[in-house]
Amino acid sequence: MKVFNYNRWLILFIVIGLAAALAIGAQRHQVETANHQVDLAVDYEGLLELAEREGLPPETVMEQAKEAGLTSLAVYETTFKKLNANGKASAVSGSQILSGYHSGSLTDPVWRQLVAEGRIVGTEVYVTGHDPLTWREVKEDLFRRLGTDRVRLYTVGGEEVLAVKAHYESFLKMNLGMPTDEMKAVNDAGFYVLARPSNYEDCSADDVQAVFRRLDGFRISEVVFSGTQTLGAPKSLQTTIDAMKERNMTLGLIEATTQLQFYKQDGMNEIAKGLGYDHVARLYSVPKDEQPKLKLDTIVERWSNTDEERNIRIDLMRIYDKPSPNMSLLATNMKYFRDTHDKLAAHGYTFGPAGTFQSFYPARALRALVMAGVAAAVVLYLSLIIPRLNARPRMQMILFALFAALSVVPVLMGNGAKIRVLAALASANVFPALAVMAQLDRVRAFRDRACASLPRLIVTAALALLATGVLSYIGAAYLSGSLADTEYLLEFQIFRGIKLTFVLPLVLVGIAFLQRFDVFDGRMDDTEGVVNQLRKILDMPVRVKSLLILFLVLIAGVVFVARSGHTSGMPVSQTELRFRAFLEQAFYARPRTKELLIGHPAFMLAAMAFWRKWPTMIFFALVLVATIGQGSMVETFAHMRTPVYMSFMRGIGGIVMGAGIGAAAMVLIELWQVIVSKAKGSKAD
Q: Strand order of the sheet with strand 124-129?
C-alpha cells in the first residue's frame, strides 16, 4: 500500500500561518461588531403622498413615521413637476399662453400685452415664483444649469418672470437643486436628511460648492448621489471630496440589482477613495416592481437578512401603494416601518446615521505569515499526490522557500494585491482537498477491520465529518486572512474565483483518490496511478444507459455551478424559497443547500460505503460529492461582506443538519438492504 508522509515542517508553517490568519480574523470581527448602526429611511415625497392619499396633514404622518422608528427622510432635488403641484412656483409653456390668448381665457392684461407685442415665444417656457425662498433657489439653479444664453429675466407687472429656452416636457423633469424648505421640514419633524443631489452638466467647482452651501445648516445623515454620475464628475471630483471631508459626511453607495458591488455612478470610486472608506456605507432598496409581491412579514425578514448578511447600513424603504387586508394604507406602512425597526433592534442594531467600518488594513507581517502558510499548504498537497516528491522532503522545502518568497516579498513591500487573491484562491481549493485527503489516508489503515454496527457507524461518520469540517475551516481562516480589509468588506474589491472553487476541489480530491485507490477493484497496495486509471476509464465501452447517466450528471453540474455566486440568473423555485425561509428562522445563519442536502449527507454515505465494502467506484463518487460540502464551507468566507462570525455559524449549522440528513439516509439504506436480503432469502427457500 502506498504510504504518503505528511511533512512536519510544512505543517508547522501552516500552523504559524493559521495563527496569523486567526489574529486577522479576530481584528475583522471587532471591526464588524463595532459597525451596527442602521439608517432606516424613506422618501420624503413618499410620506407626503401617503398623507395626501389618507387625507391627513403631512405633520401627522411624519410624526407616526418617527414613532415607528424611521430615522431619515430622503430629499431629492426639486423639479417643476413638483413645484407646479405645490404652488410654490410655476412653469408654463409659451404655447399654452398663446393658446389662452387666442381662446380668450388669458385675462391678465400684462400677459395679453406681451402676447400682442410678440414677446411670447411658443417654444419657450415662462417661470414665475410664489414663494420668495423657492423663487430665489429656482433662479439661482436655472442660471447655473442653463446659462444666460438660455435664461432671461423679465419684469411683468412688477413680478419677475424667467423666460427659458427649453423643451417644456423635459423642463418639467429637470433637477433644480436641493430644496431647503423640504430639508427644513424634515429636520423640524425630527429626521435626518438623506441628501440625493444630482450632477450638473460640465460641472464646475463652483457648482459643487453651491450644492454644499445649500446643505449647510441641516442635519445630514448621508449623501447618496442620484443618476449615473456623482456630483463633480468628471472634472470637479476633488471639490466634492474636499466639501464632504470638511463637513464629515458619509457617502452612501447603492447596491447593484445583482446584490454585488454597486450601481455604477461615474466618479464614485474616486470619491470613496478620496473621502476614505471609513466614510462609506452601503445602501439597499427593494426593487419597485418586486415590493408589491412581498407580504409584510416577508419583506421585514428581507431587511433583517440584508443588513446582517451584506453589511447594508442604509435601508431606503418604499411606501406600499396598496393596503394589507383589513388595514388602512397608513396602518400598513406604519406596521411595515415598525416591524422592520423592531426586527433589527432584536438583532442588536441601533438606529441613526449609517454606521461605517473603521479603517481596517491588517499588519503586513501578519499577512506575510498567511502567505507563507498558503505556500506550505500548496507544497503539502503536491507532496501528497506525487510519490517522488513525497519521498524527498528536501525538495519539498526548496519548493516551499520558492513559493513563500514569491508571495511574501510583495506583501511586505506593501503591494501584493494579486498575490493575495491567488492565496485566497489556493486556500479555497487546497484546504478542502487536504481535509478530505486526510480522512482518506486515515481510513485506508482500517480497510480490513470488521464492519461496525449501524449506530457506531453513524457516530463514527459524524465525528469524521466534524473533524474534516474543522480542517476545512483552516482554509476559511486563510481565505479571510488573505483578503480581509475595509475595501473587501464594502465590496470595492471582490473575490472573483467563486465559480472555480465549486469545481477545482473535486479535481484535486479526484487526483488524490486515484493515487490511493484503484476504482476498478479497490486495491490500495499497488494502484495503477492517476494517468493509467484515467486511460482505463476512457477506454471503457460506453452504453446508451451510461451516456444517459453522464448527461444527467452534466446537467446537474451545470446547474450546480450556475446557481452559485451572484450572477447566475438561475431561477429558484417557491418551494426552495420557503425552505430557505424556514432555515433562516431555525438557524442563526441559514446553512447552504450544497452542504446540508448534498455534500455532508454524501460524506456520511461515503463512510458507509467504505465500511460496508461497496464498490470502490461508488465510494469514489460519494467522496467527490462530499468534497462539495467541504468546498462550500470554505467558499462561504469568500463573500467578504458577510460578517465572519455569521459565515462560521452557517457552516456549523450545515454540518449539524447535514449529518442528521446523512444519518437518516444511512438508516433508510440499511433498512432497504435488510428488506432486499430477506426477499432474496425467501425466494431461495
A: 89-93, 124-129, 159-165, 151-156
Number of neighbours of residue 338 by Cβ within 10 angstroms? 17
* Residues 207 and 230: beta-carbon distance below 8 Å: no
**For each successive 10 residues of the chain (685 residues), what is the average pLDDT?**
85 96 95 94 95 93 95 94 87 88 81 82 88 90 90 82 90 91 95 95 92 95 94 94 95 88 92 94 92 89 90 94 92 95 94 94 94 96 92 93 93 88 94 93 71 84 93 94 93 84 88 83 61 70 59 55 49 58 65 85 90 84 92 90 90 90 90 78 61
Question: Is-contact 336 320, C-beta < 8 A?
Answer: yes
Q: What is the pLDDT of residue 110?
A: 74
As to burial, measured by CB atoms within 10 angstroms (0-12 exposed, 13-18 middle, 19+ buried), residue 10 is: buried
Three-class DSSP category at 350: strand
- Which amino acid belongs to residue 682? S
**545 burial type by CB count under 10 A (0-12 exposed, 13-18 middle, 19+ buried):** exposed
Q: What is the pTM of this model?
A: 0.84
pLDDT at res. 465: 93
Phi-psi group of 87: left, alpha or beta (phi > 0 → left; psi -120 to 50 → alpha; rest → beta): left
Which cell numbers in the block locate residue 106? 388669458
The predicted pLDDT at position 377 comes to: 96
Q: What is the dihedral of CA 550, 556, 560, 563, to 10 degrees?
A: 140
Under 8 Å between Cβ of 644 and 31: no
Distance (Å, whole) CA 7 – CA 235 = 58
Reported as half-sphere exposure (CB side, CA atoms, 13 A), residue 367 has a value of: 26
> Quick check: 31 and 301 in contact, CB under 8 A?
no
Half-sphere exposure of 461 (CA within 13 A, CB side): 33
Helix (H) / strand (E) element for 165: namely strand 159-165
Give the 3-state DSSP-derived string for 246-306, with helices as H, strands as E and coil as C: HCCCCEEEEECCCCCCECCCECHHHHHHHHCHHHEEEEECCCCCCHHHCCHHHHHHHHHHH
Query: How many Å apart are CA 454 and CA 425, to the nearest integer?
Result: 38
> What does the alpha-carbon distance between residue 644 and residue 558 come to, in Å, rounded to a whole number?
29
